[in-house]
Amino acid sequence: MSSVTTKKLINKVHECERESNEGLVAVHPGLSLVEGYTVVVRTDTSQFLSENKVILISGGGSGHEPGHAGYVGKGMLTACACGSVFASPPPLCIMAAVNAACQQKAGCDIIMIVTNYTGDRLNFGIACERARIKGHNTEMVVVGEDCALDSVDHSAGRRGLAGTVLIHKIAGAMAEMGKSLSEIVSYLNTVKGKMGTIGLCLSPCSVPGSAPTFTLQYDEMELGLGVHGEAGVKRMKVQSAKDAVKTMMDHMTNKETSTHIDITTGDRVALLINNLGGTSVLELNLVAKEAISYLENRGIAVDRAYCGSFLTSLEMAGISITILHVDDTVLEYLDLPTSSPAWRPSYIAPGQKLRKTPNLVKVPSEDKIVSDVTAAKLDAQTSGIVYKAVQSACKKLLAMEHDLNDLDKQSGDNDTGSTLAAGAKAILEKLGPASAPTLPVECPHSLALNLGQITETVMGGSSGALYSLFFTGAAQELKTASKESLCLALQTGLLAIMKYGGAKPGYRTMIDPLNAAIESMTHPKNSALSLTEALKEAATAATKAAADTVHMDAQAGRASYVNKSLLNKPDPGAVAVASWLSAVADVL
């Protein structure tokens, strides 16, 4: 294991816990911080006390944010005591939470919700006894729902994991509804036994000022670890999301282990997908999809699903999955609104009582090209020339793929050639044989619309969008077939690119050769030239303009973010435009 500490955005190692809570209450002024302690309490405690509702106190080591301080608020916890990173808060800190919640009021009803770790049980246990001595009616509910362990015979028992947050939510709802201490304790002790959680990680975390707590090879993941990085039940090779979820669910429902959770066809459950800290939202949603599919394929009704960062392990990359058996009563508690900043409810459509995986929404397809049937049609000979021009331009771009990629290295992407080649290849496939073209080469208007759709679909990104704008804009001027309409088409296509892309001539982009070609075609000295001659002159002007981009400052596109001294070659997009224009002119 490396002894090198990891980088973190903190000020001082031993002050990060309190400063984190200072940030929490600064953002959420409905929460307050107790002076001298890392204790977060509801700002409206006086009103809460006047209603004689049960006080809920939880806490544990820091590093699990937003747990548990993020769940303080109306409808959830009254106060939270936070220890050092991954360390239980001492009894004095917990008693500060009790005193902040009770505000000198005697005989308060208090429930302490504690995760099943030895330090938490001991320290909260001491505080529980001291609160009783002070005259408060105090009970402790210990949550341990870890399904990873094969046996608890020689261990401290099942660890408390992200499922604890669901207990916070249920307890908070019951307290808000005015349920008694005995009612809440009895119900929580029943519900917590109907819940299971298992974790999986891809990389470790590190306590501020320390090296990572363990190591994993690049191709490994660990199943069943604890929220402090405690060892799991097995280390295995990295799997796909679907296989990883199956491995987790199979283990937590395996009847041969003493810590499994029983689920059978027809059961109703709530599902919680929890980010252990360093997992992207993209991955979380993907895992949620797979977990819901796994359960539904087994005939389990997932009445509620939650996905997000609920109880983390600093920056650990990984997830945990929690399953809770539910009925209408549990759902009522889970659905009761709360002001706590960290709770993320499941979005249910208005009027919908139970979560249901929605069917795909069907919408009319946009892939049908609607062209003007009155647009001009070309004769067979001219259509053949257009066919060859399109074919030649595409072959030219395919041949230049490597060279254009090489030019694009200066802006760090190295993909211009590949992107344009993908578009060219798709156009050639759609073009069909010369004897029976499958693109409408006989109708310039329809052809341009088709080219716009192909480029936007196949090329994607900025290049696909720019070429789609160009061809779609140009199509409107190609309803007539003439030299003038072609010139107007180029102008309209260029204006569309400039309008939406933001670039102008001189910005070192594909606009420069296009603009030069148009200026050549519209110059008075070329007015008497034939279409063939005008296109040759335009291609020559475009080639020169593309070469001249080497002397320009990039003011648009990715190249604009690159140091000027590194841009010592012509712009690849400009070179590509000049090349396919030249290919078209050569055919003519």
From TrEMBL:
InterPro entries in the record: DhaK_dom (IPR004006), DhaL_dom (IPR004007), DhaL_dom_sf (IPR036117), Dihydroxyacetone_Kinase (IPR050861)
Molecular function via GO: ATP binding; FAD-AMP lyase (cyclizing) activity; glycerone kinase activity; triokinase activity
Catalyzed reaction equations: dihydroxyacetone + ATP = dihydroxyacetone phosphate + ADP + H(+); FAD = riboflavin cyclic-4',5'-phosphate + AMP + H(+); D-glyceraldehyde + ATP = D-glyceraldehyde 3-phosphate + ADP + H(+)
GO CC terms in record: cytosol
Domain DhaL: 384-586
Superkingdom of this protein's organism: Eukaryota
Keyword field: ATP-binding, Cobalt, Kinase, Lyase, Nucleotide-binding, Transferase
Pfam families: Dak1, Dak2
Domain DhaK: 12-343
Gene3D superfamilies with a match to the protein in the record: 1.25.40.340, Dihydroxyacetone kinase, domain 1, Dihydroxyacetone kinase, domain 2
Entry's family note: Belongs to the dihydroxyacetone kinase (DAK) family.
Subunit structure: Homodimer. Interacts with IFIH1 (via the CARD domains), the interaction is inhibited by viral infection.
Biological function: Catalyzes both the phosphorylation of dihydroxyacetone and of glyceraldehyde, and the splitting of ribonucleoside diphosphate-X compounds among which FAD is the best substrate. Represses IFIH1-mediated cellular antiviral response.
NCBIfam families associated with the record: PRK14479.1 (NF011049)
Name by which UniProt lists this protein: Triokinase/FMN cyclase
Species classification: Eukaryota, Metazoa, Spiralia, Lophotrochozoa, Mollusca
